[in-house]
């Protein structure tokens, strides 16, 4: 089994703040994100979103925030996009490494999240991947509702794997299995990650769990033992998807990831928690 030091940790302040109703000033976001970057505690930073300001007004200043970030360290930046227009905006940011696209296997959620059907979303993704590769950006596709959904839409492990197969054929190698509304049980996590990692040995498959604090460590453990080596989290476990109508079930707390993987940085995490509260105050 690989060492825990080989884990990729993704901090997701974008996910943490996107549903906050009052707009946080750009300068406060820049100060907070630069603090996270300068700590070099994280491998990736999910720092913004190139979507319609009407849909997510909190992140309307993403381009300006990116221009002011200090990216001289090891941490790579990721931004979320929902269509080709967003991709064309995102590729103009030289310090952005990854474009993240949420691809839901729930028809209801795909419509809510990107105003498109699953079939239309896949066609969009083809164009997005082409734009990303032309500009030497890497794609990360989030398989939303990967562990089921509360809407009654059909779901199965095989459905997840089939869509991963189709998306990988476009040239995507970075995936994240997203438990968007905290549906996943521990056996589901184990089974899906084992099956996905066995079928797609050349892909990098991470975990993006929304979870109550009480079950976060168990979910981390289940995914890790099943072979997952990339984990998303958010300081204090804040956030969730405002389009899921799940009362913003929080993210996996970053402090749990730091604890579980025995990373140095517990003292920094305490500081980050206080700074995050100041950010959203």
Automatic annotation (TrEMBL):
Task: Give the matching Pfam families.
Answer: HMGL-like
Q: Does the keyword Repressor apply?
A: no
The protein's UniProt keywords, in alphabetical order, are: Lyase, Metal-binding
Quick check: keyword Metal-binding in the entry?
A: yes
A GO molecular function for this record? Answer: lyase activity
All copies of the Pyruvate carboxyltransferase domain together span 6-280
Q: Give the Gene3D superfamilies listed for this entry.
A: Aldolase class I
Q: Which family does it belong to?
A: Belongs to the HMG-CoA lyase family.
**Protein name (record):** Hydroxymethylglutaryl-CoA lyase
Task: Identify the species of origin.
Answer: Sphingobacterium anhuiense
